[in-house]
């Protein structure tokens, strides 16, 4: 079991352990499993990396992320420049179908829209632009509409979860048409997200509702 102070230190150490973040000034507070991240970084990649590092720590139930991206003058770009670089980056990624993603940029905030056949394509579109200078935030509104129309078998999803490294004992799976809902409890945020990634690999899925709760023995 972890106290608030122990959880805070674990998250701080995890952030400092990341090479991209070891010199970043990121504040961490923890209370009852809720971790708050604050500070100013010079790239969107550092902002997302800090959140990823925190999610991997046992005891983290939720994250409040208030990290700001503030670029040095040399990184400052107009929205037109950012939009053009986003389009180039998307086109260069072979995992992202050409011409299927729409891009909007407003004050450095990039919004992605469109329809793709697989969730990995949606995630690839976002990861393509994480490191671009000038990007302050990303909203990924791309919809997944699979070209496969086979019936999704609940047992296939359950077997895939069972083969994974996560503890699937308390995970319940419900299938409704093209949508899969995950319910129950896991012991870490990583396990919750990994369960969602596993489900998305099944052909024919349009939506995954990840309602898993994160429950780790926590003393305060």
Helix/strand layout:
Elements: H1 4-17, E1 26-31, E2 34-41, H2 44-55, E3 62-69, H3 79-92, E4 101-106, E5 109-116, H4 119-129, E6 137-140, E7 143-144, H5 154-163, E8 171-176, E9 179-186, H6 189-200, E10 207-210, E11 213-214
Parallel strand pairs: 2-3, 5-6, 5-7, 9-10, 9-11
Antiparallel strand pairs: 1-2, 4-5, 8-9
- Average pLDDT across residues? 92
Would you count the extended β strands for me? 11
The SSE order reads HEEHEHEEHEEHEEHEE
CATH architecture of the largest domain: 2-Layer Sandwich
How many individual domains?
A: 3
Our Rg estimate from Cα atoms comes to 19 Å
CATH class of the largest domain: Alpha Beta
**SS element count, helices:** 6
Low-confidence stretches: none
Report the structural category: alpha/beta
Helical proportion, percent range: 25-40%
> What is the subunit arrangement here?
single chain
Shape: flat
Relevant terms:
alpha/beta, Histidine-containing Protein, Chain: A, single chain, flat, 220 residues, four-stranded mixed sheet
What's the gist of this structure?
The chain has helices spanning 4-17, 44-55, 79-92, 119-129, 154-163, 189-200; strands at 26-31, 34-41, 62-69, 101-106, 109-116, 137-140, 143-144, 171-176, 179-186, 207-210, 213-214. It contains 6 helices and 11 strands. Helix 1 packs across helix 2.
Written description of the protein model:
There is one protein chain. The protein is of the alpha/beta class and 220 residues long. The chain has three domains: 4-69, Histidine-containing Protein, Chain: A (2-Layer Sandwich); 74-144, Histidine-containing Protein, Chain: A, CATH 3.30.1340.30; 154-214, Histidine-containing Protein, Chain: A (2-Layer Sandwich), CATH 3.30.1340. The protein contains six helices and eleven strands. It has helices at residues 4-17, 44-55, 79-92, 119-129, 154-163, 189-200; strands spanning 26-31, 34-41, 62-69, 101-106, 109-116, 137-140, 143-144, 171-176, 179-186, 207-210, 213-214. Strand 1 (26-31) and strand 2 form a beta hairpin. It starts with a helix and ends in a 6-residue tail after the last strand. The model has no long low-confidence stretch (mean pLDDT 92).
């Amino acid at each position: 079991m972890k106290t608030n102070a122990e959880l805070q230190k674990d998250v701080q150490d995890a952030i400092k352990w990341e090479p991209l973040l070891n010199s970043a000034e990121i504040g961490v507070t923890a209370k009852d499993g809720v971790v708050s991240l604050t500070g100013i970084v010079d790239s969107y990649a550092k902002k997302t990396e800090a959140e990823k590092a925190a999610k991997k720590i046992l005891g983290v139930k939720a994250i409040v992320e208030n990290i700001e991206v503030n670029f040095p003058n040399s990184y400052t770009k107009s929205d037109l420049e950012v939009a053009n670089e986003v389009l180039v980056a998307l086109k260069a990624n072979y995992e992202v179908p050409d011409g299927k993603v729409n891009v909007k940029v407003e004050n450095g905030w990039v919004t992605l829209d469109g329809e793709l056949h697989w969730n990995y394509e949606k995630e690839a579109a976002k990861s393509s632009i994480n490191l671009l200078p000038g990007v302050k935030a990303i909203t990924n509104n791309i919809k997944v509409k699979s070209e496969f129309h086979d019936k999704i078998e609940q047992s296939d999803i359950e077997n895939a979860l069972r083969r994974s490294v996560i503890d699937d004992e308390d995970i319940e799976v419900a299938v409704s048409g093209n949508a899969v809902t995950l319910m129950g409890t896991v012991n870490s945020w990583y396990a919750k997200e990994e369960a969602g990634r596993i489900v998305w690999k099944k052909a024919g899925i349009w939506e995954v509702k990840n309602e898993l709760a994160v429950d780790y023995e926590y003393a305060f």
